[in-house]
Amino acid sequence: MKNKTVIVTGGNAGIGYETALGIAKLGATTYIISRDETKAKAAVEQLKAESHNLAIDYFIADFSSQKSVRQVAERIKQKLTVIDVLVNNAGGVYPSFALSEDGLEMTIATNHFGPFLLTNLLLPLIEKSSEGRIVNVSSRSHYRGKIDFESFTKEKGYFVMKAYEQSKLANVLFTSVLAERLKSKNITVNSLHPGVVKTDIGKKGTPAYIRWFWSMFTFLGGISVEDGAKTSIYLASSNEVKNVTGKYFDLCKVKEESALAKDKNLAKQLWAETERLIQSS
Ligand SMILES: NC(=O)c1ccc[n+]([C@@H]2O[C@H](COP(=O)([O-])OP(=O)(O)OC[C@H]3O[C@@H](n4cnc5c(N)ncnc54)[C@H](OP(=O)(O)O)[C@@H]3O)[C@@H](O)[C@H]2O)c1
């Protein structure tokens, strides 16, 4: 990946860190986006040491805040002239209902609205690549996901997993519309399930019972972060997928998405509602 420029969101920890490491080892100029400067600096130093690639740097953004996403997009546009690969990896779980500063439920704000806005703002730079790629880290949780537009802004029987599943379904629906829109350009868009991966995602800000459940769940059936990053690295770099777009991957193979994820009308409705809520916030 020499001469390629890659951005990995949430690259300071977990699957994102390992994805950035794998990509940096392939020689790409690699940027991570982190919400915390101290964590970002430490991750960049560690990435440089582990990859022996010095072309690694960071940007700061909080994906739950549209203002922050707009600011980082501006900084990226000032610094870079082209983006070859954008890996939308940052994501989280929220144990209880809360609204973002834009009036959106935090899970959908962070996991869907943030990457939706960032990707659209960075498209002019991705279009400058001879072979642009957008990789959206979804989850097999999307199979249980449903879209309830009212829940984007109102509390309606909030449950942590329901909100997470909805946001991960939104990642697959976003992928399908964006891939369609970019068909005439040299940009592919794919989504993926990384596996059940031993990261701290279920332990951040969650109550003890969720932390315990997440530790047991990943201890019994989880894979390492190195293995969890493989599908993201594959989609970001492999020649095998350079012309593949609009697909959902699991273990580096195309897999059928859920029936709802294939619903073109729902995908278009989600796109329109996301744009409407971004404009009105
Ligand atoms: N682990 C799994 O089994 C699994 C399974 C399926 C899908 N996934 C997906 O994989 C992706 C990575 O998750 P992970 O397991 O590697 O979790 P993780 O270790 O918690 O890493 C998540 C990354 O996203 C960042 N992030 C979270 N909220 C953010 C925000 N508001 N603004 C900016 N950055 C934010 C985190 O930053 P901080 O370090 O500051 O928290 C971290 O860098 C997520 O999209 C997740 O939904 C994970």
Task: Determine the CATH superfamily.
Answer: NAD(P)-binding Rossmann-like Domain
Which molecules other than protein and nucleic acid are bound?
NADP nicotinamide-adenine-dinucleotide phosphate
What helical percentage do the residues reach?
40-55%
- What is the straight-line distance between the termini? 38 Å
The SSE order reads EHEHEHEHEHEHHHEEH
CATH class: Alpha Beta
Low-confidence stretches: none
| CATH fold-level label | Rossmann fold
Report strand order across the widest sheet. Answer: 3-2-1-4-5-6-7-8
> How does the overall form come out from the CA principal axes?
globular
CATH architectural label: 3-Layer(aba) Sandwich
Number of domains: 1
Give average pLDDT, whole number.
97
How much of the polypeptide forms β-strand, as a percent range?
A: 5-15%
Biggest pleated-sheet summary: 8 strands, mixed
What descriptors fit this protein?
281 residues; alpha/beta; Rossmann fold; 8-stranded mixed sheet; 9 helices; 8 strands; globular; binds NADP nicotinamide-adenine-dinucleotide phosphate
Short overview:
This protein has 281 residues and is α/β, with parallel strands linked by helices.
Set out the fold topology:
Layout: E1 5-9, H1 14-25, E2 29-34, H2 37-51, E3 56-60, H3 66-79, E4 85-88, H4 106-126, E5 132-137, H5 160-181, E6 187-193, H6 208-221, H7 225-228, H8 230-237, E7 248-250, E8 253-254, H9 264-280
Parallel strand pairs: 1-2, 1-4, 2-3, 4-5, 5-6, 6-7
Antiparallel strand pairs: 7-8
Helix pairs in contact: 1-2, 1-8, 3-4, 4-5, 5-9
The structure holds NADP nicotinamide-adenine-dinucleotide phosphate.
The site of NADP nicotinamide-adenine-dinucleotide phosphate (NAP) has 29 residues, from α1.
